[in-house]
Amino acid sequence: MRNPAPVRNLSGTRRVARSLVVAGVSRPRRERFLSRYNNFWGWLFLTPVVLGLSLWVAFPLGLSLFTSFASWDLITAPVFVGFKNYIDMFVTDPLFWQSVVVTLYYTVAGVSLQVVLAFLAAILLNTRVRGVKVFRTVFYLPSLVPVIVSSALWMWLYNPQFGLFNVLLTSLGLPPQKWVFGIQTVVPSLILMSIWGIGNIIIVFLAGLQDIPKELTEAVAIDGGSAFHRFRHIILPFMTPTILYNVVIGIIGGFQTFTQPYIMTNGGPANASLFYVLHLYRQAFMFAKMGYASAMAWFVFIVTGVVSIIIFKTSSWWVFYQGETKK
Amino acid sequence: MRGSRRPSEYRLLAYVLLVGFSLFCVFPLIWLLRSSLMTSREIFTLPPRLLPAVVQWNNYLDLFQVVPFARYFFNTLLIVVLNVVGAVASNSVIGYAFARINFRGRTIMYGLCMATIMLPQTVTMIPLFIEWKLLRGINTYAPLTALAFFGNGFYIFMLHQFFKTIPVEFDEAAFVDGVNHFQIVTRIIAPMSKPALAVVAIFSFLASWNDFMGPFLYLNDQRKYTLSLGLKYLISGYSVMGQWQFLMAASVLIVLPVALLFFLTQRYFIQGLTMGGLKG
Questions:
Q1: CB A107 within 8 A of CB A254
Q2: Taking a contact as any Cβ pair under 8 Å apart, which residues of chain B between 75 and 104 contact chain A?
Q3: pLDDT, tens digit, for every residue of B108-121?
Q4: Closest to B209 measured CA to CA, from B132, B138, B154, B148
Q5: What pTM was computed for the model?
Q6: A109, A251, A316, B66: which has the highest count of C-beta atoms within 10 A?
Q7: How many CA atoms lie within 13 A of A133 on its CB side?
Q8: Distance between CA B74 and CA B233 in Å, rounded?
């Protein structure tokens, strides 16, 4: 028998294998034992995941797929209605498309503004200014505020008569605004409110900026590159994974917006802030149309699936991962 | 990249922008605090005062008369504790399996867990409600706490990343001593991973403390309300009556524990946020 490898270089399971070698167990039996041992413990530890995925993901998805083809008020038995809910959604219900437009407007404009502004703030914080930690803390504070509280607070700030914003505007000699009470201004007002909470994005960007190897930015500076060059060829490529992450998280968050419009405007004025989830909520819990609401849920599911696939397929040509340099 | 080489105007501009954004962040919070300490008449004075003439601490005391705030507080606390315990216990074991046990089907299961991060709650909101109705879980805390015990994609990812950085030698030494995987997690990996587990605990605390949608959908007995749900009913009841000071005082009380937690554990907050950003 050849000498066993030095103990230090063996991984845990291989070390057990080694003791089996010493005990004279044949090779195939050894490997079978180990893979069985690891499979047993691996899947034992994954029991919550398996249960959780089936109970709280797969079953609900299946249930809502079934419900989306039925008319069901949760009191009487569900009645199969074929594609009626989907036809109602896409053809009959004008408010469905209104809610899609409102949500897309908020998500696209909101996420782009949030990401751009947070990126700028992080760059400013990364330029060796004093008191970075204080600024970082101050910027992060609003992110801690529960959405129900920020909704109450901003409703008060946006109060046309007594709110802080109109008081500031009039004291500067500017015309007061309707904010969340105007058809044109309600979504921009909600976006402004979301900008208030970009502290967590700023922190993620700042950490990403601090991870950029100093030698690279210094090399550009030595070669006489301008600040723009440094940004375009070093900072931006390095930050693309972080940008991708924040965009994806932002889009998912935007699709889920409910509390702000529900509390502050209840979808108004004139459905100008009728977000998708608010519409879905009303269909399910005010009109007891579980089938219609489930069809809406499946539409979101398919859209997020498609959007994620598009983002990740196209990300290969604009996202740069550090590991790629090693290839 | 020496800062001193930059023209000082740039630096001044940077400060102006940073201070400006700081004011934008802080001023609403100050407005919240000052409105919570005013009489209802003072709140509606024009032009508005920045500070109350007489600080109305009794708004906070009156609040407890207006709504059963203490009860909401303990209800919320119960839900939060169950969520934190569930999240730390389940995700540490799951994260360990993904990071350190080489079993068949690991890659695909990890992929599935990561995919759940991308699944908006909007999709499962209605069917989960129907499911809980079938399970007779409406108006109980089960729908608000049970899910924490089944793992969460984001926390699994964070712990997986952290566990991978611990040298394998620790497991090996234990393995040779005849210790099984479960004992390795509880005796070796978990004690070494306190910072990462703290991040999971803090984030699940925040998520359940701040949750509005869950309690709003599942609870209808007023004695079971959480703080956020209590605030919702305060909003619909008192904003119409112009009693904004109660609303603002309740808001301050809800934010206060979170702010306190943040100042005590700031390091972990930053760590948790940036761990998410390192994904890719």
A1: yes
A2: 90, 93-94, 96-97, 101-104
A3: 999 999 989 888 88
A4: B148
A5: 0.87
A6: A251
A7: 3
A8: 18
